Amino acid sequence: MFPTVTADDLNGRSATLPQGFPGETTIVFIAYKQNQQPLVDGWVRALGLDPSIGAEFVEIPVVGVGARLIRPIVDNGMRSGIVDPALRARTITLYESPKLVNTPLGFSGRGTIRVLVVRRNGQVLWSTSGGVTAAGIAAVLAAYGA
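User: That's the sequence. What structure does it adopt?
Assistant: Structure tokens below.
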């Protein structure tokens, strides 16, 4: 099950997840480090995701509790790299310990990204770690359509 967390998107709107996901079923990308963004971008491109139409998705950077002290700097840095308000609305930054999301999802560490397909009730239909693969694309699409 996806844990219940509350965080703000890059437009400043607060959301309680998973209930606040944009779709009944949502593709969720969890990243822990800035250098993991290319992995997320690879999945987004391969799946043909568009923040304005099509499959619902969110990116959740889990930046850690320590980053709360520099939250305005972190948020403004991400906003400067994401100019599209629709994509900003899909970027929900979590200033919590990675264990808050990893433990209930059965993951450990912050060495790579997580990709999940989650229902609003928190049920995880599918998950993996790491970069995009052909098998991963097929699995995401199958789980999303379930």
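The helical segments are 37-47, 71-81, 85-89, 98-105, 134-145.
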